[in-house]
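EI: anyone free to look at a 254-residue chain?
SC: sure, send it
EI:
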Amino acid sequence: MGKLSFDQLVDLYLLLSVERIGPAKIRSLLSKFRTFQNIFSASNQELQEVEGISKELSSRIRKIYSQRNSVKEFVEKELNRLKKIGGRIVTVWDDDYPKLLKKIYDPPLLLYVKGMFDEKDDYSIAVVGTRGPTNYGKLQAERFVADLADQGITIISGLARGIDSIAHKTSLKHNSRTIAVIGSGLDVIYPPENKKLFDEIAEKGVIVSEFVLGTKPDAVNFPKRNRIISGMSLGTLVIETGINGGAMQTARLA
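SC: here you go
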């Protein structure tokens, strides 16, 4: 499947709105039915032939199509709002979707993106860590990132306070590329004091989110965010973290 048309994008949002239907199940459905329209036209029995699609889920898929007009309005508004903030949607079928991310177990089917990907981003390292680093941690973060940046390695992190912010700032200071993967909507900058950093990354690198516009930075979003950070990277470097910190989760995912 190539780049999605507007109607195909609406159909994708429609499927994603079905409770307990995620990227993996949508890929399985497309593998059997080839197109979104074929999925919505299929009978309950045909849908249930797909692994993971129960009787209950097949019923939900068939019922959701009645809501297509409201989802279409939502997508139109979403695209208009994205245009105003200089963002765009990149789907897994687009040429500029991150190559490494496609290889993880459960890659997001669509990303909200601000900034432009570059071939250099195929060589990326994630640098993550605590929001409250020691002075030693700060120095080591700067040292590692500076060395990587000077070798043309793109630095990926999560725009959080502490190590994440240091990683992004050091990368920019060395005129290297950096990518921030956030746990909120592309129009919700968190933490708010990183507004200037956010804008600079969007101009010289990329801001990436899996979440619809307006999504608040709730705690449940960050595990999903972390799989993208590790998934876009060749490796993950953790600089200071609590044993139960989010950075350890990113390392496990890596």
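EI: The beta strands are 87-91, 110-115, 124-129, 154-157, 178-182, 206-209, 235-239.
SC: 👍
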